[in-house]
Amino acid sequence: MTESAFINRFEPAVSAGSPPLLLLHGTGGDENDLLGLGKMISPGSALLSPRGRVLEHGMPRFFRRLAEGVFDEDDVRLRARELGDFVSEARKQYGIAAPIAVGFSNGANIAAALLLLQPEVLAGAILLRAMVPLSDPPTADLAGKPVLLLSGQGDPIVPPGNSAKLAALLSQAGASVTHRVLPAGHQLSQADLTLARDWIGKVDAEAA
User: Fold this and answer.
1) Phospholipase/carboxylesterase/thioesterase domain: which residues (predicted)?
2) What is the reported pLDDT for 3?
């Protein structure tokens, strides 16, 4: 790959036809964090898992923030473009279709930004504890793209109503959004895994 490459892990598909997944970790994670989750959500899928290139006190992230919940939106746009370029190059190298993003927290936010800025890069997304990434997003065409948004009712990081605003934003752009608010905080629960696995099974079946 070129200089746009991220440190990453790639695991090829073991089941032909399963949708490839783009795994995007949260703050302080790395390319190994969500591999197990990806395998549980969609056994057999190819897994592409990059490490965020921004460091916050030594912790990898996918874009800079100015404070908790306050994003450097110029950096969001820059990093989303970089990630989109990386995915495009990885697809050529590994011969995979457009992936479904599975992002947690900061990873979910960059996935949402990628949907809005470069819709063609992703086939859909599972957004775990995501926020609205851009205050003035471009008009995107997400017609037909499936999106699962899972929020925590007691999430201390995502402000009340923010995830609902994101769901509305993506729906207005044409995405087929399923939004569930779980009795959970910012951390993931068994319900997240179960819902994500069931959802991607339906998406896979409809695409077959």
Assistant:
1) 43-202
2) 47
